Amino acid sequence: MGGVAHHLLLPHPARLKPLRPRAAVARRGALCCSLSTDAAPAMTVSITGATGFVGRRLVQKLLSDDHKVCVLTRSASKATSVFPASTCPGVTIAEQGDWEKCIKGSTAVVNLAGMPISTRWSPEIKREIKESRINVTSKVVNYINSASASARPSVFVSATAIGYYGTSEIRSFDESSPSGNDYLAEVCREWEARACQVNQEDVRLVLLRIGVVLGKDGGALAKMIPLFMMFAGGPLGTGQQWFSWIHLDDLVDLIYESLKNPTYQGVINGTAPNPVRMSEMCERLGRVVGRPSWLPVPELALKAVLGEGASVVLEGQKVLPAKAKQLGFSYRYPYVQDALRAIARDL
Ligand SMILES: NC(=O)c1ccc[n+]([C@@H]2O[C@H](COP(=O)([O-])OP(=O)(O)OC[C@H]3O[C@@H](n4cnc5c(N)ncnc54)[C@H](OP(=O)(O)O)[C@@H]3O)[C@@H](O)[C@H]2O)c1
């Protein structure tokens, strides 16, 4: 990507505009505390990527609080098997032709769609990793922007990733840090730039830069545990790389809070407050799954299994959630040992 185009796509802070106070107050009332009350009015939330690892848990939480959900999916049959009508009566399932209608009747939109990144990367797959995010985000933003005032969702929560910052063994990053210069940083910049095209005069935008999500049913742990078991449980790579993680329940709470609370706006890092180095992560994981941490899993072996996608576990970044802290967000799992123990209890 050329320098000029690249620059134009950067989500410059000026493009994250504050909501007009009148719109904010009219929609949500004058909340000024850092955490919203649970008495928020019922919402209808349209969600892309709802059938995925994070989306499934988010849908569960919204339904349990009596909100309604529109699952925006590429495949209604897949979504129906994830959310059967018998157990999920509050869910409407929409394939792409019906996304616009759903978005235009929703109070909020959450954008979680994207092709998984921890696979072998070929040029074709790299293109799809990027385009899957950009295309879905553009489509959703166009539907929000073309809605009439009475049908327009008031909040748009769009996922991005801590890959935005690039990687480093020594620096730490918060929301004010600049973007990195590797492939994943470029993907995140373009993904965020598309989300920033939502009409921020009328719609509150939250960009969640998500860290490595820990949960029992998917994400990094589902990939790491088998690798880890295969190599007798040593650190992946040198072990010195940073691992900025978040427990799935905390991430879902952060999304939920972003939907309800008008003080949540702009870029928010979705990471726990205590990132660890990979060696510590693996040692703690070893204790939890009953494998002693032994020899490091060699980089070559990881690359043989994951190809270039191994960079996701071989190189990391230390990302701190300065904004969530400032907003008073309360983590259920601030420390990785507690997060892993809770997950292992459920295995
Ligand atoms: N999990 C993590 O550790 C982590 C870390 C950082 C950022 N994130 C980001 O957070 C979001 C949610 O993560 P997740 O782990 O829940 O993802 P996931 O389980 O991989 O699910 C993502 C969803 O995206 C849709 N999708 C998959 N491939 C697609 C493609 N080629 N084109 C369009 N849509 C596609 C699918 O929904 P349908 O089949 O229903 O359309 C899928 O259920 C993702 O964008 C991810 O990049 C996740």
From TrEMBL:
Coiled coil: none annotated. It comes from the Eukaryota. Residues 46-262 form the NAD-dependent epimerase/dehydratase domain. InterPro entries: DUF1731, Epimerase_deHydtase, SDR39U1. Residues 297-343 form the DUF1731 domain. CDD domains: SDR_a8. PANTHER family: EPIMERASE FAMILY PROTEIN SDR39U1, SUGAR NUCLEOTIDE EPIMERASE RELATED. This is NAD-dependent epimerase/dehydratase domain-containing protein. It comes from Zizania palustris (Northern wild rice). The lineage of its organism: Eukaryota, Viridiplantae, Streptophyta, Embryophyta, Tracheophyta.
